[in-house]
Predict the structure.
Amino acid sequence: MRDILRNPAGLAGTMLLALVLGAALLGPWLAPYDPQLFHASSRLQGPSAEFWLGTDQYGRDLLSRLLHGAPSTVFFGLGATALGVAAGAVIGVIAGVAGGRVDSIIMRVLDGLLAMPELLFTLLIVTFLGGGATQAMLAVALTFTPGMARIARSSVLSVRTREYVLAAIARGESRAWIVGREVLPNALGPIIVEATIRVSFAIMIGATLGFLGLGAQPPSTEWGLMVAEARQFMFRNPWCVAVPGIAIAITAMGFNLFGDAMRDAFDPKRNRS
Amino acid sequence: MTGPGTAPVLDVRGYGLVYDTPEGAVQALADVTLSVGPGETHALVGESGSGKSTLAWAIMRHLPANARDVSGTIALSGEDILAKSPSQMEALRGRRVAMVFQDPSAALNPTMRLGDQIAEVLMRHRDMDRDAALAEGEAALARTGILHPEQMMRRYPHEASGGEKQRVVIATAFACQPELIIFDEPTTALDILTAQQILELFLRLRSETGVAALYISHDLGLVSRIADRVSVIHEGRIVETGPVSEVFRAPRDAYTRKLMAAVPRPEVRLAVPEPDAAEAVLKVRGVSVRYGEGGWLARLIGQGPAPFYGARNVSLDVRPGELLGLVGASGSGKSTMAQVLSGLRDFSGEVVFDGRSFAARTDFDRAYRRDVQIVFQHPDASLNPRQTIGTILSRPLRLYGLCPTGRLRARVRELLEMVLLPPEFANRFPHELSGGQKQRVAIARAFAAEPRLVICDEITAALDVSVQAAVARLLTDLQRRSGAACLFITHDLNLIRQLAHRIAVMQRGQIVDSFDVADADAPDRHAYTRSLLKAVPLPAEFQGESP
């Protein structure tokens, strides 16, 4: 952790993440107004002492909506990534450990899925599952599975031929022990790092789905949906599009920078002996 | 030899270098003084981490960003090169100072033909046009003794063998007629016989061109054959300098003496007493291993690559309590045999252990796996980095049920003491230990299973000379105490002659020779054995008869 903070990009990422996670955990209590409360007299206003970030087309306070939307947006990203990583890691580890025919079949199927653009694939799944936040989350998780499986497999493969694993095989250890105690703890690093970086993709895809009307439904305060709803009034008050847009960007950047710094910290070549 | 009045080609005086790290400045070189005269070969000898490669890079002025010169001067033919700008250094590198690296595969660009790589250097440094450079390159290759230089010029690096690639690198280094060539362990990555040829080539080219050379190596025997003067470097300081014969026969510094004493001497036997001629505990009968059969898909389509044999019809016996040496060049199949016997690789043929016969890898049961333990070459890779030493050592005890749970900690302490490590190491992680210490843990883990046969796959190859000797002694000591037999795989002939009772020689997957250690110099040895033995200088030749 100290390695991550020593790196300037890592420090910036950690601070952005702290801001976003703070908003996600405490946002609803910090919000000055009810996010659904209309202020009919002050619609589409810029920032002022009364409304710090301005108001939208119904005169709802943007700051309050942003803070209320933070949990759903951030936990959407975390949840989708966690599901995708878990499923991908299981598939990848199975392929990596089994090897041979099982490995080739799994990997060829995954290659086929990977050939499809991520967003298109997500849209396809959402079409099958129907709209809604939970469905969107499942769709993003499914989209992430093939890529994560690939990373988990290559990580397992590189560990599997290490001499300590060979020593365990030569000792006659059970397969479960070898996978659980010798291979997995040493293969987790790259998987965790990749997962952190993927959270930002998940948040962006989630926002995109919201924007397209396929994710969270109004009157939800999900950030992507906020951008979509305010789009028609973009020219009358740019704030109502910019605020949620910048929030999405900050969150994505925070996870990205943090993930990059974590990858550097995990890199054994940079470790001091 | 540097005569009086001749200016040295390379003159390093009081040079010091530090690396800035997050933990503060680390002194890599301190007060290094060293000079190489015209036509002289100066050897720089030291163990890993001693700073010998750092010095080479300091002379080339190609240092990482966190390196800082702190004192002294480096002069090339009288010119101070510490004062030169990066672009001046660029013109100087290759032109006036060339370098030959340890690993020829990494030193050559895999996407360029070998001829183009030589020509590129000539065009840049000798202002030749392309045709002239190619012609000159071919002539340079011919001088290195490559049989068909015109064909070699058209090949890519992957189409040449390690020895051929190193010849190309050496030809490139000599091509610009530099004043100084720095050799950084140029034969370490090659097998014994190829290394021997490269050394002969070096000696011939040196006498033809009269170039000055700084030769970095950890191999004292090799240095004794080629160098005029030698400097011994230890922890960034030169501890002793002098003519090779003087330094090696009468080392003055304590560290040099320790280094000399650690060189394996075949006449000093370390082996346990010859066991009684009992029935062999391990009999290998006609074992073959085929590699490269292609995947199931390739086989299905019928386009699999042609398979080749990693081991072919290998038969050998190991008697109880005996140490059998298995030697051979890299790729000769020695490690393949280690993998077969420890159940890591499929084979055909028969392995008989203690009267029980096994015909396939899957036949090996837990009793066999307990009786036959393996120690690997790389101590860094053979211990799980996320487990403590205590966990690692207690694992075989738990697995084979050798020790009641309540006694585990005490037994781990005993094991650590057995390999001369402090008992508190049980709570440490592998990365907190040195290479030699890690290898001791790996040996302790093998002996924890109370095996009857221990396979040692090049266990000393990754260690420094002084650590090698201690690990070898430890192994025979454990053998003496436990009575286990040992199959010791190595390419170090002097070492194996100290340790083994019998030696088997492998070449291209087959055992070509097998003999008692006392008969190693007998005239009826196989030609290949004799050439291997001849390629390695005996310490007695360069150190005198007594250490």
Q: What stands out?
A: Chain A has a mean pLDDT of 84. Chain A touches chain B at residues 6, 100-101, 104, 162-164, 166-167, 169-173, 181-182, 185-186, 271-273 (CB under 8 Å).
